[in-house]
Specification:
Blueprint: H1 2-26, H2 33-44, H3 52-79, H4 88-108, H5 116-138, H6 140-144, H7 148-151
Helix pairs in contact: 1-2, 1-5, 3-4, 4-5
């Protein structure tokens, strides 16, 4: 019982972290607004993932993110000059992948409570954006290549 309760709390905490990440990211990219709202709802009431409206919004947004991922991947493959994290499209691509993975984890949590490998995956995905931001912010070479609008945000 205690392990199940701890797993549920950890799942809600991961959703709260992701809602914060998506909310912060929505300030510069509107594509993060829907996942921010959906994830915040899951952190407040995890059973919301069983709701038809929630599932439909999740599916529709995930489909758009998958299409955007393929379009950005093709663009990067054709035009990337070096490290894809140095490219605006590369960072956007990783964002879309994070959205797609997180929405998939949330959607699957309705039928099967997260535990074991999926809970570990949720923790890794929830920490990844913050650790990536920290790495990019600390890395002077990456900061030097930022476009002006990125330098003035932080």
């Amino acid at each position: 019982m205690a392990g199940g309760r701890a797993a549920r709390r950890l799942w809600r905490l991961c959703n709260l972290l992701m809602a914060a990440f998506f909310g912060l990211a929505a300030a510069v990219q509107v594509v993060y607004l829907v996942p921010a709202a959906l994830t915040l709802l899951v952190s407040v009431k995890p059973s919301i993932t069983d709701n038809g409206v929630w599932r439909s919004l999740c599916d529709l947004h995930s489909a758009g993110c998958i299409i955007g991922t393929f379009a950005l991947a093709c663009s990067l493959f054709a035009y990337a000059q070096g490290n894809i994290l140095h490219e605006e499209e590369g960072r956007e691509l990783f964002g879309l992948v994070i959205i797609t993975i997180w929405m998939s984890l949330c959607r699957s949590s309705a039928k099967n409570p997260l535990g074991g490998v999926r809970l570990i995956a949720a923790i890794v995905v929830a920490l990844f954006p913050f650790l990536s931001w920290l790495y990019i912010y600390v890395n002077k070479e990456m900061r030097a290549s930022w476009p002006t609008h990125c330098k003035t945000v932080i």
